[in-house]
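Ticket #4471: structure output looks truncated?

Reporter: J.K.
Steps to reproduce: submitted the chain below (226 residues) through the standard prediction queue, then opened the result file.
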Amino acid sequence: MRRQGPAEETVVLNYYDRPPYMVPQPDGGATGLTADPAAALFKRAGVPFRWQLTPALRQLSAIKAGAGRDCGIGWFSDAERAGYAVFIGPIHHDKPAVVLAGPGFAVPPGKEIEQLLAEAKLPVLVKDGLTYGRYVTDLIESARLNTVVVPVEQSQMVDMLAAGRAELMFATREEADLLLAAKPAAARKIRIIELAGDKGGEDRYIMCSRKLDPHIIEMLQAALEG
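Returned output as attached by the reporter:
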């Protein structure tokens, strides 16, 4: 029996439900701001792949373990992940991060949200396993923000804000706009507050296991640059 060459190996393209970046489709695939360019890149490179709906934390575990030909889409690159994964891209550049605030929260005149978060140690919801870009990560660490880690999805976190069960959460601007558009009743109670110090945005990448054949990595990177 003929053995498959590296370019014929099927890569598992993992995604999870996170509009507008990844939106599951009835056929088992995904579409969205990171799903579409990732699929287009694999097709352009001639690398076969199959979609797999996988929770974010499980994706990280699989890629870190390096037991299979796994890739995840739309991930931020950082030093820890670069130690066990290969990054291809970027495939998308985010708008700056924002804070979503519940109905009982207000920023006093003359204060920026970063200052208020640091001084008052207000609790901020963050999703378990999710990162919000370098600026927010640095803000959490340097100001020692009072973060409350929750296992629910971003849309459920919005419901918590609207119901008064929490006051603040982080999101990317793209995500915040979509979350509130999908929940008009909640949107009437929630405000988007821009982070004064975040002038840029973050690049998102395809993050792959080091188990993946280096030739496939080269093909994908070449297709991205070509």
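Triage note (M.O.): checked the attachment and the full token line is present. The longest strand covers residues 85-93.
Status: closed, working as intended.
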